[in-house]
Design brief:
6-stranded antiparallel beta sheet, alpha+beta, Jelly Rolls, single chain, binds fe (iii) ion
Length: 183
């Protein structure tokens, strides 16, 4: 066998091995993976109302790690109440745009946003934006505050689960509908 032929057969062997699936069981502590086709749903019932003109669509509600992944949808002139983050938040804007009253930048479609722990802000969608949808990963809690930082309320993954359960029951999807998003 010449060098070229030997190289080719090495490459073929490598390529064939690359396509062999892992052939052992996953760790028994692994919880089931989560795949959600059409994450931006057409079924309006999947959007859980949160405030006037504000909805969220749960994707992963991590009860064991204390965070949640969700799509936030805000329509025309919506405001997500002033809140403080004790832990980081990651966001990716899928549609429309929004800004914080506390900053001078605007998050537009395709933007990635990192919200730093300790930050307090108020998310606003302007009247000329008919709809914005942003994927957010929120860790720990959102603490709702007045303009002076006095605590008005909070949300965590457990209050999110409760809100989903109540909404999906009312919407006719059943109280266990939310369970598929919980890990
Ligand atoms: Fe925030």
């Amino acid at each position: 066998m010449n060098d070229v032929a030997a190289n080719r057969s090495d490459m073929e062997r490598t390529d064939a091995e690359a396509r062999i699936p892992y052939r052992h069981p996953q760790p028994k502590e692994c919880v089931p993976e989560l795949v959600i086709p059409n994450a931006i749903p057409e079924d309006e019932r999947l959007w859980v109302p949160q405030q006037e003109n504000v909805w969220f669509r749960p994707l992963c509600l991590s009860a064991t790690r204390g965070y949640w992944m969700n799509l936030l949808r805000v329509r025309k002139s919506g405001v997500l109440s002033r809140h403080r983050h004790p832990q980081p938040v990651h966001g990716f804007v899928l549609k429309g745009s929004w800004h914080y009253l506390e900053h001078d930048w605007t998050a537009t479609e395709g933007s990635y946003v990192y919200e730093t722990p300790g930050e307090t802000h108020t998310l606003v969608v302007e009247p000329d934006v008919p709809e914005m949808i942003t994927l957010f990963q929120v860790n720990g809690a959102m603490i709702y505050v007045d303009p002076d930082g006095r605590v008005q309320g909070y949300e965590d993954v457990f209050t999110k689960i409760d809100l989903c359960r109540r909404h999906y029951t009312t919407a006719g999807l059943g109280e266990s509908f939310v369970d598929q998003f919980i890990r």
